[in-house]
Amino acid sequence: MQPVHKSQKLANVCYDIRGPVLEHAKKMEDEGHRIIKLNIGNPAPFGFFAPDEIIEDVIANLPDASGYSDSKGLFAARKAIMHYAQQKQLPNVAMEDIYIGNGASELIVMVMQALLDTGDEVLVPAPDYPLWTAAVSLAGGKAVHYVCDEQAGWFPDIEDIRAKINANTRAIVVINPNNPTGAVYPPELLAEIVELARQHQLIIYADEIYDKVLYDEVQHTSIASLAPDVLCVTLNGLSKNYRACGYRAGWMVLSGEKKHARDYIEGLNMLASMRLCANVPAQFAIQTALGGYQSINDLVAPGGRLARQRDLAHELLTAIPGVSCVKPQGALYLFPRLDPKIYPISDDQQFILELLQEEKVLLVQGSGFNWIAPDHFRVVFLPNSDDLIEAIGRIARFLENYRKRHGTD
Description:
Enzyme class: transferase
Number of strands: 15
Organism: Pseudogulbenkiania ferrooxidans 2002
Shape: globular
Helix content: 25-40%
Function: Involved in the biosynthesis of alanine. Catalyzes the transamination of pyruvate by glutamate, leading to the formation of L-alanine and 2-oxoglutarate. Is also able to catalyze the reverse reaction.
CATH topology of the largest domain: Aspartate Aminotransferase, domain 2
Catalytic activity: L-alanine + 2-oxoglutarate = pyruvate + L-glutamate
EC number: 2.6.1.2
């Protein structure tokens, strides 16, 4: 039999959050090992559940959810999203500018498929949520990574962005609040990015899935609110703010100047129609979620569970010799740095695999987020305090042994 090979389109596609180290963890679980998983931002397994009123609305509307919806989504759900866009001060948004997807992830792939031809480039942050890089590659484009500066609180380096724009650049991706760093960008910085997009006629893709997961009274600004004359595509959903990852209910909003993008929008409409519609039961959760009590505020407030766990994880990690970490202002992650003089790592995936094998803790290496050096990893702080203490204690023990093996203790 001739071997069946995967498509060449997948040659440069990588998604290490669910990559080979996770496969090894699954084998270990099959053998009876208990793995502490700090690798994925999935709130439900850690006791963060969708609000009851959202669940009740989905259940109540199940009899009406058997058929297809409009390819862009249910009217009531899109109307609620439009009102939310207005609250966030997104300019020039009408009902036809709103698309509901099976999570924001489906829409990320869709917007790139509709835009890119071979050789087109998209500016993507480093580190990034790796689906952006993967979606650009899958669509035939090239992801060009601009640096977010750890010394500047993980804010994007504007001069690095400017230097990487060329005739092939079509768009820039802004992840705010950022995954994996937890940085939340101030309006002044966002305005500088808008100005670059304006000068070079770039589309702005704004990933704002964590826009309510904010700490220390930090305020979130939607970049599209600063760009009335630039085409912006803002993505959001129920997964994180409402702890409803499994519902797969996300959306995107087109705002700003759209007249010059009619052909692109026609492509988006075509792709939305080809998948018929997003899952209908979850769409019934959107209006209630956006209009109801925002319980996420209790979780991120001082003393709230997420805020407590962020503080605890940050304190424990930075107490380890040679480990530093910018304290996140948003999202669900820390992205600590390992001092290369103390931890001379050449292959960070192998490093994370060894941690898994020795201590049964599952993390994701920094290169999985397209970071430029093998000196970072991402920690999810969703587990309760006792489990975080146990997990980070195991990480500390592994790092102590690593220092002893390499004579850097």
